[in-house]
Amino acid sequence: MQHQRGSGPGAAAAPAEYAFVPDLPDLISPEEYAEHPDGRLVRFRISVTSEGIEILGDSFRPAAVEQILAALGCGPIEQMLCG
Questions:
Q1: Which among 51, 58, 60, 75 could bridge 17 via Cys, Cβ 3.0 to 4.6 Å?
Q2: DSSP category for residue 67
Q3: Mean of the pLDDT values across residues 65-70?
Q4: Is 5:66 a contact under the CB 8 Å cutoff?
Q5: Which residues contact 50 (CB under 8 A, 6 or more apart)?
Q6: Helix-strand-coil percent breakdown of the chain, rounded to 5?
Q7: Residue 51 burial class via C-beta count within 10 angstroms: exposed 0-12, middle 13-18, buried 19 and up
Q8: pTM (2 d.p.)
Q9: DSSP notation for 26-57
Q10: What's the chain's Rg over C-alpha atoms?
Q11: What is the pLDDT of residues 47-63, one digit of tens each?
């Protein structure tokens, strides 16, 4: 999941918006699944872009990433459908 946050100070939090995208980079490799049988691994990558701050998150449990990104405000949260 990816989240774009504007760089302006004091940006107000708004209800989370979601957008489905065809693909996002994986931050967790298939080999790591066996190392984390409880499914609690969460990984984030934070980058500064010309549009602001980009936060990319990956986890075995998407709700964990969604909760953190929604708390940051400013959206939309981009999600990839897996299956």
A1: 75
A2: H
A3: 90
A4: no
A5: none
A6: 20, 35, 50
A7: exposed
A8: 0.73
A9: -SS-TTHHHH-TT---EEEEEEEETTEEEEEE
A10: 13
A11: 999 989 999 999 988 88
